[in-house]
Amino acid sequence: MVDTGRSVGNNGGAAGSNRPVWLQQYDLIGKIGEGTYGLVFLARTKSQPNRGKCIAIKKFKQSKDGDGVSPTAIREIMLLREISHENVVKLVNVHINPADMSLYLAFDYAEHDLYEIIRHHREKVSHSINPYTVKSLLWQLLNGLNYLHSNWIIHRDLKPSNILVMGEGEEQGVVKIADFGLARIYQAPLKPLSDNGVVVTIWYRAPELLLGSKHYTSAVDMWAVGCIFAELLTLKPLFQGVEVKAPANPFQLDQLDKIFKVLGHPTPEKWPTLVSLPHWQSDQQHIQGHKYESPGLHNVVHLPQKQPAYDLLSKMLEYDPKKRLTAAQALDHEYFRNDPLPGHNALVPCQSGEKVVNYPARPVDTTTDFEGTTSVQPPQSVSSGNAVAASMVTTRPMQRPMNMMNMPRMPPGVASFNLASQANMAGGMHPGGIPMQRGPGMPPHQQQQLRRKDPGMGMTGYPPSQKSRRF
Amino acid sequence: MAANFWASSHYKQLLDQEDVEAVHSPDKEKGITLEEFKLVKMHMANYIMRLAQVVKVRQRVIATAVTYMRRVYTRKSLSEYDPRLVAPTCLYLASKAEESTVQARPLVFYIKKQCPDEKYRFEIKDILEMEMKILEALDYYLVVYHPYRPLTLFLQDAGLTDMTQLAWGLVNDTYKMDLILVHPPYMIALACIYIGSVLKEKDTTSWFEELRVDMNVVKNISMEILDFYDNNKGILEDRVNAALNKLALKQ
Fold this sequence. Notes:
The structure holds two protein chains of two kinds. By secondary structure, chain A is of the alpha+beta class.
């Protein structure tokens, strides 16, 4: 049962020092991200057996209101501690520094993310992302999402920068869904994000939310995946609305307008619950004011309407959340059964002759230390790739939240906990010996899940047909 | 997993009775008996419930807080972790985990208001420090399942919704014991339905048979609950205080 042998007690704080003992097991390389929650650092493990492995350390700021560990951090840890899937980022350690009440989450480090991959193609490479890579990225993203949804977790903030891709190493080209700060278990009705004062980018926001729906369902994540799919194809955000910046969840008319322009107006015939959405009613003249005649999604994404890729995309961008494709349904789509088949390493196409794109390494700001203090020395330039402790140049502003992970295991016993010891938790979902067969006799936690066809939760099986090729 | 109890950290952390009932050595040295250990935990569960009523959080938050408190004491001693601070801090942490955050300031205020005894009084800073220690003691496992949802579903299925209030109250009382650390929540729910159906003289035999659960376990849990009621008639404030005084925590 419980692993009583595990050390949980590393309080970590060297007396009076801001540099806790546990941090000494890492070499800090630099800052790789910054968000409202705090900072993300890249570090390397000093000790065996993972000497030199990269990890990303997310440091949460103390909550401003003097109220202890931020609820966002609590919820993120809470979820990450329960989930384990190949396509979901892996939490390897949690550390607490009692000296300044800061909290650190250590993740496997991922060198790339979809934001950077798309940007690289748009700005540096003269061609689009190859079809194999697009399909593999999308398949793995859906595979991770299907796992989350099967476990009644909605991510709620899917966007290219939160979809990580592993760099060189065993897991090269594997997608990892990251940033669970807004994710929720939805067995209980969810409060709207706006009620919690949370601001997320509007470009990937589902139309039902833009129209004021108070209820989040897993369909909001599927809308975001549709937007990301289109962006992978065209290298441009599909619906680039201008955000209305105001407190208290303002109505985002421009974003809706961008959607309507491409997909046409939603109609109550096709989306029956539309009429009950707050903004559909209250802002009728705005929303229903100008009509857009011909839906032009295929023109925007440059796909013939007969192609499976177009069919899949249009079903993810279905207005009615009830009709929108689920992650499980999407994985079953014809698109994934046609050549090129999706693979494990999304970045390296299997067909010989296909050009492999070398994506740049994540920029690291080496002038910032763990306390977030910036030194005055100017950033220095360094080569990309597996560049080690040398400093790296920061080439882009760091406003967007980032999350990076990449390291299979922490040395046991060095820190508060070691997730690797129980990494296989998602495998055996139904321990034997609990013979409850009848519907309500089943543990009700599990019941709702059984309603749907077993989505193969926790199974990271790729389409079997390609097994021979890619493994 | 979030919605699958069998894949959850909660399921993996279920303990054997003996492990839950081990008095930690620092407490033993101070003369704390098993009975006193249980008594202090029960008293602290009651304290959490009282505080929760004034800060107005849902039953679920209370249940999670009590579970955190009980889990802490499977790993830490009463001597190291003053229960009078652990209890409100567990409520504070549970309120964040269950998305109905209670701020530290009003919590401290209500503690002062509720407890004439100075030894229960703590500053915000104490709560915040203890929050971190509790997170570590819990090994950052924060998702907790409770019998309430299965209870509701079972009662509907059995056509016993008129028993809801009674069974719900029984479930609330199970948090005065360590059952949540030992048994899957749905089994606790079934035990409460079993007791309820005996009390109300409802024949649920065939319904239970159809469930194909281990009735021996259901009956054993039921007996534990009934024993608990028998053993705790009349209140025990003096005995709780005697135990807490042995610990000599805060002067």
